[in-house]
Q: What sequence folds into this?
């Protein structure tokens, strides 16, 4: 009997929840704000769906409503990706400075 | 690119994201972690880009969208002050939610592009997944907007409650579940849009009754929702990168919510039901009328006390963030350290408006992170400390949480500042904190109240330390 691909995806999903659970518990509380901004940035991987939406087309010369929604979604996700990773980097950089200070 | 190859590369993306989170286990590895995250994101975008058929018409718009979004995001990231981090994160969550909704709507109208069937005849499993994804996305969006408005101060931070609120929420919740099921039999756009509207409404309604200082829970919860929304869309699009990431983010937000609830000794359900602080503040106004004496001090007294101390513990709270006092505070600490006074910082998990908020602000002011301690690591030290300098914190120091079972914050872990030889309280007024209860610490003999703006007071103390 063949297994529905959905079951595979569900397995990946459940196992990822457990990985997330254990990995996030090991995050130090002082980095909880960067944790939120970085999870926010990576959840913008939704851009993958937005890319498909931007180019998914029945005819090559026509820009459909779905494409337009895709473009908007790309822009929103891009704000998040750039904003999220850069602001995380900015925060983590501050923690770094402190370390240099400590070594002095 | 073949579907198998892209699937494998999406898996690599997932692994890179796991490494990104793993890096945050210590500040030393965290920056490398962030680069793993960026690499994962680039990989996911490139793989997708090469898996779709590129039409040049669309390409121009796509690149423009990417540029506009990228530039906007970068500008925000560079300009945003660290004190505004909670509202920034809330705003970003709303974008993830909205993007999820847009992708789902796009897939609903052009299912061919996503291999989901044809318009009105989307595969049963896909339409259910799409319904769930769009619903979580929509409520993440509207909920985050409310959280953003509250944190930004555009909307009042106090809980907004009305009779029949829980019943209304329950009915809308039931309607959403019904509509998701109903989509299987009737894929008309009326049903689909009704589902979206109901989800927008529920997101709005569940955040409105939650008060200002429950925000750390709200923001963690919305973090979690944005993950589940991504996972929902991932199932719809049969995309493993989205499924893995959604699960990671979803569980991350859920854990943070749990930690925040635990730090307030409240159940998640009671936070969600909201209204905290609204009813208790009424009784408190009555009790406040019989004024108890407080010792009122100025910057000179505070400087004198600290100069003669051997050790000082600083307890920052939301008031420090509001007053942007972290740099002045650091200056003060530098002077104290030059006098060979031992200074450390004690952070309560729910200090501020989001998890880790105080740590970031102190980091911004160049405070070494090894001088900053969490509640359980430092609480025993208060008894051997001369001065506790409480700046902008209130409820998290209230001893009533340990003594009065009737208090709304009873059982909440608090910082034992009253065990210090003397306590300096920088506060604008005697007003109670968000829990709406009086802090008996204000009236203790060894407490000196410094009524002023946190930044001005700290600057004055700095002057008086010379």
A:
């Amino acid at each position: 009997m063949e297994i529905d691909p959905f079951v595979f995806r569900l397995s990946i999903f459940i196992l990822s929840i457990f990985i997330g659970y254990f990995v996030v518990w090991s995050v130090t509380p002082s980095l909880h704000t960067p944790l939120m901004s970085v999870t926010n940035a990576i959840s913008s991987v939704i851009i993958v769906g937005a890319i498909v939406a931007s180019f998914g087309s029945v005819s090559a010369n026509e820009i459909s409503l779905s494409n337009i929604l895709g473009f908007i979604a790309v822009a929103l996700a891009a704000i998040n990706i750039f904003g999220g990773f850069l602001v995380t980097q900015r925060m983590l950089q501050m923690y770094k400075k402190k370390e240099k200070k400590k070594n002095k | 690119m073949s579907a198998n190859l892209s699937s494998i590369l999406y898996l690599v993306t997932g692994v890179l994201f796991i490494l990104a989170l793993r890096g945050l286990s210590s500040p030393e590895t965290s920056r490398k972690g962030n680069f793993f995250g960026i690499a994962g994101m680039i990989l996911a975008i490139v793989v997708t880009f090469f898996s779709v058929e590129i039409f040049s018409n669309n390409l121009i718009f796509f690149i423009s969208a990417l540029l506009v979004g990228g530039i906007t995001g970068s500008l925000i990231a560079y300009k945003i002050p660290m004190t505004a981090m909670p509202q920034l994160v809330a705003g970003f969550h709303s974008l993830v939610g909205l993007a999820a909704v847009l992708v789902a709507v796009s897939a609903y109208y052009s299912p061919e592009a996503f291999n989901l069937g044809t318009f009105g005849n989307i595969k049963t499993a896909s339409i259910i997944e799409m319904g769930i994804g769009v619903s979580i996305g929509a409520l993440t969006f509207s909920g985050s907007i409310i959280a953003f408005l509250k944190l930004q101060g555009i909307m009042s931070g106090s809980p907004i409650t009305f009779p029949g609120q829980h019943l209304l929420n329950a009915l809308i919740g039931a309607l959403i579940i019904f509509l998701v099921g109903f989509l299987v039999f009737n894929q008309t756009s009326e049903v689909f849009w009704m589902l979206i509207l109901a989800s927008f409404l529920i997101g709005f309604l569940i955040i409105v009754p939650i008060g200002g200082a429950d925000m750390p829970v709200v923001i963690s919860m919305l973090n979690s929702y944005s993950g589940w929304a991504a996972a929902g869309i991932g199932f719809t699009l049969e995309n493993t990168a989205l499924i893995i990431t959604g699960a990671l983010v979803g569980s991350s937000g859920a854990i943070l919510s749990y930690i925040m609830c635990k730090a307030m000794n409240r159940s998640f359900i009671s936070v969600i039901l909201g209204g905290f602080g609204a009813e208790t503040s009424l009784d408190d106004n009555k009790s406040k009328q019989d004024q108890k004496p407080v010792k009122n001090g100025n910057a000179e007294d505070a400087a004198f006390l600290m100069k003669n101390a051997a050790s000082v513990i600083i307890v920052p709270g939301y008031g420090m963030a509001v007053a942007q006092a972290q740099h002045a505070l650091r200056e003060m600490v530098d002077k104290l350290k030059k006098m060979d006074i031992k200074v450390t910082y004690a952070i309560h998990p729910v200090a501020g408006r989001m998890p880790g908020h105080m740590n970031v602000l102190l980091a911004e002011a160049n405070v070494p992170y090894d001088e900053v301690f969490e509640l359980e690591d430092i609480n025993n030290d208060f008894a051997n400390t001369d001065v506790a300098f409480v700046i902008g914190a209130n409820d998290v120091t209230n001893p009533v949480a340990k003594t009065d079972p009737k208090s709304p914050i009873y059982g909440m872990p608090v910082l034992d500042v009253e065990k210090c030889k003397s306590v300096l309280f920088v506060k604008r007024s005697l007003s109670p904190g968000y829990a709406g209860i009086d802090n008996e610490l204000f009236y203790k003999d060894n407490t000196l109240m410094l009524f002023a703006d946190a930044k001005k007071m700290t600057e004055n103390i700095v002057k008086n330390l010379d």
